[in-house]
Each structure stands twice: as structure tokens, then as C-alpha cells.
Amino acid sequence: MQDEHVAWREQQRLAAAGRAAALEAERAAEARQASALLDTFVVQAAERGLEPHPLVARALDGRATYKTHLRGWYLKSNRSVAVGEDGEYYILTVPPSLRARFTGADLSPSRPRLIVGAGGGDGEPVPLKQLLDRRLEAGARWP
Known about the structure:
Layout: H1 2-47, E1 53-59, E2 65-74, E3 81-84, E4 89-91, E5 93-94, H2 98-103, E6 115-116, E7 126-127, H3 128-138
Helix pairs in contact: 1-3
């Protein structure tokens, strides 16, 4: 009986590992597709003369804003996500920090998704392509 239980647990562990690997492969493929959209956006923005602007991060509690070392284009009117001039995807929320008030916030690129806000609680999920197209169409009039 004990051997059957050990074998069953091992089988369950292997099945879970297989599902996790499949999910990771799916997310990596999605990130590659999203990265291609971002790269195309950066090229099109340059062709249209859209200059990148300094990006600002907001504290998670919404009370403070911090300068960053990044330049790029905001994709949402609430300025929560952006494309850097390097073609990377940035989520512009950070933990509150006294140090960041003086030195600026350090941001790392995030893995892009084809649906911005999928699985999150910050509003409606929106296709990345739609946000990119909307930003290009707005030109210099972006809020």
C-alpha cells in the first residue's frame, strides 16, 4: 500500500511538472509574439516622428511618482504601462521608496503579454496590438 501511495505521488508530481513546463512554453511563445509587436511599434513611432518621453513610475499606493532612467511611450492613459525606446515592455508601478524620491526608480523590463491586464485587477484587459495602434494614431496628442 505504501509503495502504491509513493508511486501515485510521484506520478502526480510529474504530471504537475509537465503542466508547468507546457504553461511556461506557452507564455514564452506569447512573449515572443508580443516582443515582435513592440519592436514594430518602435520602428513605426520613429517613422512617424513620435519622440520618446521620460517615463515616470507611480508608487503602488498611488501617492508618489518617481523619475526613471527610461524614455519611451505610455500605452495607457493612466500611464501604468509603456514601451521603452529599447523596445522593452515596462509596468510603471513600484513599491514606495524614500530612496527613489531622490535617485529615481529602477525598473526592469517585464515579460510582455498579448493581452495587457490579463489576470490582473487593474481594469479591463486590452489586446496589446490595440494599445499600440491607438498610441500610434494619437500621435503627439497623447494625454
